[in-house]
UniProtKB/TrEMBL annotation, chain A:
PANTHER family registered for this protein in UniProt: OXIDOREDUCTASE WITH IRON-SULFUR SUBUNIT, XANTHINE DEHYDROGENASE IRON-SULFUR-BINDING SUBUNIT XDHC-RELATED
Superkingdom of source: Bacteria
Organism of derivation: Alkaliphilus pronyensis
Coiled coil: none
Pathway stated in the Swiss-Prot or TrEMBL entry: Alkaloid degradation; nicotine degradation
Protein name per UniProt: (2Fe-2S)-binding protein
Molecular-function annotations in GO: 2 iron, 2 sulfur cluster binding; metal ion binding; oxidoreductase activity
Domain 2Fe-2S ferredoxin-type: 1-77
InterPro entries recorded: 2Fe-2S-bd, 2Fe-2S-bd_dom_sf, 2Fe-2S_ferredoxin-like_sf, 2Fe-2S_ferredoxin-type, 2Fe2S_fd_BS, Beta-grasp_dom_sf, Diverse_Oxidoreductases
Keywords of the record: 2Fe-2S, Iron, Iron-sulfur, Metal-binding, Oxidoreductase
Length: 152, 757
């Protein structure tokens, strides 16, 4: 089926199988490989993207469900060669180790800040509760988000 | 001491920018023209012989290129643990087997034009098994002689390490405390599932493997042995790793995928999903331990007797090595004159065990550190005071003749942690009587810094200063997300006084990296490879100085390095940049400012970690919340303190799971029940406490700038600290990991019945 996707502000008309997962369309058809697959069941958060302002696991959403809606992936965070403040804060605080959870983690945090520009520590933790990280123990990720919102 | 310019500072991990942008390519993101996709058929039964296997329907499916089984693949035996050619180990693995030994054993594979076709074709392979009785319990494996998982029997090895006279000391001791502690199989839970990609490289015709691995030379060796090829025909390239923790240490998919490419001549990618990664790759070894500790009434340890049964799973891999490694640790934490460790490893029809962060240390310390607390309790001593009486002091000897402990600062760690955590007041405060009860626990641990005295531990590095004043270091280095590349750059930068940004350190590739004996294993990278980088940089500097003196026509002692320039201190106006100096040396002296150096590690000092944990238990549900952690580490010197903290905090997350929630649960047929993240509980952000990290930086003689290891030891003390905290809070004796709500409620009920009865 032909469907229209609005990804990172760009419209794409794509031939998509009704059973195709959004994650596969992003990764295989649009070559946006920032979103990762870690479990394929919506349990690890590595594939998190933002759909109409909400962080979702793109491995358990059919592409058809996202057609015509606003999709944001990790590739949208950098604007005109300038990193998003969340990305900068992740780098400056040692919140990146192996990096496999990082794109999903960043998108969950971005969705949080889009709704709530000054979250508490508890709110940050809740926002990333579906994003597993095996490297950092989350401490530096939380610190990075706190730093990113400090000046707001 | 001169002030350090780059060492001891935070510099982000080398690929941080690409990682936050989502641009960095992992193997899952790599594509090649004409690439095929492979899918494995894994055994659905725990033990049996393949009676027949029919692949005709699978092969007939359009898009399927070929189906592989034991019938059409090499049957060379290998052991995926073997990382250097001289390692003598039992070889019992093959690419595909005709006798399955656990649920998850490799039976067949389909190579097809795309993944979904391969998945469909797998369903069409018809296999008939003659089922055999199974052995799941290691204790049963020990006794059972009729059911043989491998022809050579179920007992892999038995080994005893002993010092002094344990029996005599035990007999005469006023107090002996015995505990039985068992630990479970856990999954490494790297966020990136296992994967690899292979192709014939068009330039050299080499069978090339792109893999998120820990030891490229091990990948090359195992592929060579499994396929019966010479080393020179194979090239292994380390790709970005989405976490490993030992789980990607042994080549599992590499020889299999490499064979497909070897046979078909085209690129192939083989990718596992999470369930396959949990059940068919590697796990931490489960253990069943018994420990008896004899003390005098003042709290001095007189003797200790340890007996550990190790579950290696269905194949040998490192079953022997890990059993010995865990025993050695028991002699390097406390000063115990009479001690025996007996380790036995057995096969079972369960997932294969392999290297896992800490390599036996988490298991042996869970056993001994829970027992140390119980011994303190019997003595009526504060567990910290009891430990202080018995912990090793700096430069103590390993009584077994093992490597020197070096500047062992565990007592400093303990005293620091006690103060920061406010141990005394928390330990002695009255217990709550309501539903929620708090308690505190602590534990100490030790680990090593490399392989010296056990296995070959050397690395060759090539370092060169370029014509534009930058530097390139070629070495077989594998960054697993821990910051190895930047750490090495910081060391070289410090010696050569070059900004780390101007030093290129490519990762391991067997075609271009000089040889390294052991890769990213055994907590050796900073201590051994870091020291190698430092020594190589010093030799480069020596050469640079000598030739610069020739160019500047002065004595070697007159040469000064300053902000990227070289000068004669008697004529400081004539400053020459590094690049210009290299050019002058090339032109006038026909010399190259490069050194290739093989560094052999001369030591393997012990490192120490002490954790303090505060826990709160809901006595209605048995759920435990970890509230606060203080982790103190004897690190020698932190080359990059933020990386060190990151290692410790991540290790604590892993250790909390080991203590409370993570377990590869196997049913009575050998099936893994917890084969996804909804059933296998990894600690998430809301359940993660604040982890306060403190470092004791007292320097280690052979470490680069005094550094020693931290990556593995950091995951060791946390589990017993938490268990001791639970036992302290509730006055129970949990000795089985993980401490699930069921076990805690059962212990509480048991206590009630005892009091009531």
């Amino acid at each position: 089926m032909e469907m229209e996707f609005n990804v990172n502000g760009i419209k794409h008309i794509l031939e998509v199988d009704p059973m195709e997962r959004l994650l596969d369309v992003l990764r295989n058809k649009l070559k946006l490989t920032g979103a990762k697959e870690g479990c394929g069941e919506g349990e690890c958060g590595a594939c998190t993207i933002i759909l109409d302002g909400v962080a979702i696991n793109s491995c358990i959403v059919l592409a058809a469900q996202a057609a015509g809606r606003e999709i944001l992936t990790i590739e949208s965070l950098e604007k005109d060669g300038e990193l998003d403040r969340l990305q900068k804060a992740f780098i400056n605080n040692g919140a990146v180790q192996c990096g496999y959870c990082t794109p999903g983690m960043l998108m969950s945090c971005k969705a949080l800040l889009m709704k709530n520009p000054a979250p508490t520590e508890e709110e940050i933790k809740t926002a990333i509760e579906g994003n597993l990280c095996r490297c950092t123990g989350y401490t530096k990720i939380i610190k990075a988000v706190k730093e990113a919102v400090k000046d707001i | 001491m001169t002030e350090l310019k780059y060492v001891g500072k935070y510099i982000p991990i080398h690929d941080a920018y690409e990682k936050v942008k989502g641009k960095l390519q992992y193997v899952a993101d790599m594509e090649m023209d004409g690439m095929l996709h492979a899918k494995l058929l894994l055994s659905p039964i725990a033990h049996g012989v393949i009676k027949s296997i029919d692949v005709t329907k699978a092969e007939a499916l359009p898009g399927v290129v070929k189906v592989y089984t034991y019938k059409n693949t090499p049957q060379n035996l290998y052991n995926s643990q073997k990382w250097h050619v001289g390692l003598e180990v039992v070889k019992d693995e093959r690419l595909f087997t005709d006798k399955v030994r656990f649920v998850g054993d490799r039976v067949a594979a389909v190579v097809a034009k795309d993944k979904s076709i391969a998945e469909k074709a797998i369903e069409l392979i018809e296999v008939q098994y003659q089922e055999l009785p199974i052995v799941l319990d290691p204790e049963e494996a020990l006794m059972e002689e009729t059911i043989k998982i491998h022809d050579h029997g179920n007992v892999i090895m038995e080994k005893e390490i002993s010092v002094g006279n344990v029996n005599e000391a035990m007999e005469n001791a006023p107090i002996v405390v015995e505990d039985f502690v068992d630990t479970q199989k856990v999954h490494h839970a790297a966020m990136e599932p296992h994967i690899c990609m292979t192709a014939i490289d068009s330039t050299n015709g080499l069978l090339t493997i792109w893999t998120p691995c820990q030891v490229v030379f091990q990948v090359r060796l195992i592929v060579a042995e499994a396929l019966g090829l010479s080393l020179n025909r194979i090239r292994a390239i380390k790709t970005t790793v989405g976490g490993s923790f030992g789980g990607k240490g042994q080549p599992i998919l590499e020889p299999v995928c490499a064979y497909f490419t070897y046979d078909l001549g085209v690129p192939v990618k083989l990718q596992l999903d999470r369930a396959e990664t949990i059940s068919s790759t590697r796990t931490r070894n489960a253990t069943i331990g018994r420990v008896k500790t004899a003390v005098d009434k003042e709290g001095n340890i007189l003797a200790r007797d340890i007996d550990v049964l190790v579950d290696a799973g269905a194949y040998f891999t490192n079953g022997e090595a890990v059993t010995i490694a865990m025993g050695k640790k028991a002699f390097r934490l406390y000063d115990i004159k009479n001690q025996t460790y007996k380790g036995t490893a057995v096969y079972t029809n369960t997932p294969i065990a392999g290297a896992c962060r800490g390599y036996g240390s988490p298991q042996i310390h869970a056993l001994t550190e829970i027992n140390i607390d119980n011994t303190a309790k019997k003595l009526g001593l504060d567990p910290v005071e009891f430990r202080l009486k018995n912990l090793v002091k700096p430069y103590a000897k390993d009584p077994t003749g093992g490597p020197e402990l070096g500047n062992a600062r565990v007592i400093d760690c303990l005293l620091k942690g006690m103060e920061v955590f406010d141990w005394k007041s928390k330990y002695n405060r009255p217990k709550a009587t309501g539903r929620f009860v708090k308690g505190v626990g602590m534990a100490c641990a030790t680990h090593g810094s490399g392989y010296y005295n056990a296995y070959p531990d050397f690395i060759t590095m090539d370092l060169r200063v370029t014509e534009d004043g930058e530097a390139i270091l070629k070495a077989s280095l594998h960054d697993l997300g821990c910051g190895t590349i930047v750490t090495i750059k910081q060391i070289v930068a410090e010696v050569l006084d070059i900004n780390p940004d101007k030093i290129l350190v490519p990762e391991a590739d067997t075609l271009v990296s000089p040889f390294d004996s052991a890769g990213t294993q055994a907590s050796r990278v900073t201590f051994v490879c870091g020291a190698a980088a430092k020594k190589t940089a010093e030799l480069v500097k020596e050469k640079f100085t000598k030739h610069s003196a020739d160019i500047l026509k002065c004595n070697i002692d007159d040469i000064l390095y300053k902000d990227g320039f070289i000068l004669n201190k008697n004529n400081p106006q004539a400053m020459v940049s590094y690049g210009d100096m290299v050019m002058l040396i090339q032109t006038s002296l026909k010399e190259d400012i490069s050194v290739s150096y093989t560094y052999k590690s001369p030591a393997n000092p012990a490192v120490y970690g002490v954790n303090f944990a505060e826990v709160e238990i809901d006595t209605y549900t048995g759920l435990v919340r970890v509230i606060d952690i203080v982790a103190v580490h004897d690190i020698g010197k932190a080359i990059n303190p933020v990386f060190v903290e990151g290692q410790v905090q991540g290790a604590i997350q892993m250790g909390i799971g080991f203590a409370l929630t993570e377990e590869i649960v196997i049913d009575n047929k050998g099936n893994v029940k917890s084969n996804n993240f909804s059933k296998y509980h990894v600690i998430n952000a809301p359940d993660m406490p604040d982890v306060k990290v403190h470092l004791i930086e007292a320097g280690e003689e052979f470490g680069p700038f005094g550094a020693k290891s931290v990556g593995e030891v950091s995951t060791v003390p946390i589990a017993p600290a938490i268990i001791n905290g639970i036992n302290h809070a509730l006055d129970i004796n949990i000795t089985s990991l993980p401490a699930t709500p069921e076990k805690i409620l059962a212990a509480l009920n048991n206590k009630k019945n005892l009091i009531g009865g």
